[in-house]
Design brief:
2 copies of one chain form a homodimer. The first copy, chain A, folds into 2 domains: 81 residues, 3-Layer(aba) Sandwich (Glutaredoxin), CATH 3.40.30; 106 residues, Glutathione S-transferase Yfyf (Class Pi), Chain A, domain 2. Chain A contains 9 helices and 4 strands; from the N terminus they run βαβαββααααααα. A 4-stranded mixed beta sheet of chain A has the order 2-1-3-4, with helices on one face. The interface between A and B is medium-sized, with 33 and 33 residues. Chains A, B: This is glutathione transferase.
């Protein structure tokens, strides 16, 4: 029987890795479809809004990485226990996303000298602004980003923070012991550890 | 007794108006706190991540406009009936947000000639790309963006699409009868109509 879920993305971690972590954590059977960069021009017009990831289930297809991750988090019991708890998780996730959005222009910038300036500004401004606040949260919150327990907000951080490093070329969590510890804790969960060892080795 | 909810934002619609619509739709009692632009420098350092809106309830405070709107949508029964339905709504909301994010640089651009170029590009590229696809969705979906019925995705579109017009200085829905109809349908709901008439008249 074909797996119940199909997740389509590029051949890399990127913004699909949160969902792949959740799928593996919960032992959900899925098809891990990876689009080669050179095939993307053929794929793009067939997607609903020109972007991936896409999740397929029961003949239906939807996009949006965070929406997909939230859905999977509910399936694998890493969501909140009530609406307010879900709000607290969502607020953390969207704040980590805010930081990511601030870094994305580094990726698009083709001029090397402008790229260097963007990286320096990020390292002086947005990265310490957000990371110091996340660090405080984790410190006060029993080692987690929300609700004093493991939630998909931690999975989101563990999978997005390597993107911060990739974009800036630095080890951004080096100064933040609690954040580094949180990422190691997620990466060390038996199912995640196994997935990290088994997943395709890709540049991003 | 003080209202159970306090929503703090600037003195304008902006990204808080989806939540104000939901609150009014559901008849939730709330305190509508509006920060004057000149007072923002005093407010900003007191917010958790330097941004508004913020929702306060039962002595707790959280940020993130879409997270707050999703929470309120559940309270007023404009969310999905199961996890997959919530995913479909979330995917629409985040796709409308993607379009908004593409337009935001127009707001930040101070050089008038560069601003004009950004607006022209948006009107030739991102606006028709997204709006034509939303138009098709609404046409096939009984007049709504998701699930063939009124959801908070429609509230999000009805409150964010005026921002598209504000940023580009144009009536962007003019060519899209179904989208225009959807916005009018939301704005014409009795509680929303009453709120629009009663709310402070602000430039955004």
């Amino acid at each position: 029987m074909a797996p119940a879920y199909k997740l389509t993305y590029f051949d890399g971690c990127g913004v699909a890795e949160t969902s792949r972590f959740l799928i593996n954590y919960g032992g959900i059977d899925f098809e891990d479809v990876r689009i080669k960069q050179e095939d993307w021009p053929q794929w793009k017009p067939k997607t609903p809004f020109g972007v991936v990831p896409l999740l397929e289930h029961n003949g239906k297809q939807v996009g949006q990485s965070i929406a997909i991750a939230r859905y999977l988090a509910k399936k694998v019991k890493l969501a909140g226990n009530d609406d307010w708890e879900d709000l607290e998780i969502d607020a953390v996730v969207n704040t980590v996303q805010d930081l990511y959005q601030k870094l994305v222009p580094i990726f698009s910038e083709k001029d090397e000298s402008k790229k260097k300036t963007l990286i320096e500004t990020a390292q002086k401004e947005s990265l310490p602004y957000y990371l110091s606040r996340f660090e405080e949260r984790v410190k006060k919150n029993k080692g987690y980003l929300a609700l004093g327990r493991l939630t998909w907000a931690d999975f989101y951080f563990a999978t997005m923070s390597p993107m911060f490093d990739l974009l800036t070329g630095g080890d951004n969590l080096a100064k933040y012991a609690n954040l580094k510890g949180l990422r190691e804790k997620v990466n060390g969960l038996p199912a995640i550890k196994k997935w990290i060892e088994a997943r395709p080795k890709t540049p991003f």
